[in-house]
Amino acid sequence: MTGTTARRTVASFAVTAALACVTACTSADGPTDDATDTTDPSTRSLRSVERATGRAGSARVESTTVMGRELSLDAVGALGWRDGLTGTLTITYTGGTTAETMRRLGTTAMEARYLPDAYYARMGDAFADRVGGRHWIKYVYADLEDLGDGAGAGFADQMRKTTPHEAVKQLLASDDVRKVGEETTRGRRTTHWTGTVDGATEQTVDIWVDDRDLLVKKVERGRTETGELSQTAYYSDYGVAVSAERPPAADTADFKELLKAQEGGGKGGGEGG
To answer: Strand 178-185's sheet: what is its strand order?
Structure first.
């Protein structure tokens, strides 16, 4: 696969990877309700969890995600949320059509760096050979919002919902949130909460909280057009130092330019600054 065909395939994958990551790397997109009755004991408890997790500012994350036939992946790294979403994850695609596409491009894993205005995905050498030697794709959230078919609508907002305290906000907006009981999770005593969240599709959200009011585990379940959606995430080392540097411009291909290459058959451009 060479020339225009290769560039269009790479650009198509760039779109697919970005939009897959919206769901795969984020929480369910349910409403939040700041007017929730704080006299309810369960609400008061979850408000304490939301505040404690929000104040922590960062954590290490391990997650596994399955989106029907589309993809399955594992993600490991650290994320921060004090000044917008920041951090770095190593994402390994383990199955589904997206993994097959990546395999054809010579890799099944990538490094993702999250910054408040954009995220960067590092691909393999085979990908770089097809885009002028550049290993990174830059996805500016605003550019994704402007996709003509609306596919990227809400991308930045959904990326911000990656953080654990956002899962608590979703449960606070649930009409059926309840305490399940006390359980041991990864050797720690935790309280298990569950509720149903209405987003693009109805999803069930479960969280396990330790005695410091910090999330230890989160599980989301629902359905997508390609089948079952499930995500299990574990959080640890709250307050850990998080860093995410912008990759060198000379080694970065801009998603917007790759998209133009797909549409017009031209050569994908570099970041340009």
So the answer is: 178-185, 188-198, 202-209, 215-224, 227-236, 58-67, 71-80, 86-95, 109-114, 118-122, 136-140, 252-254
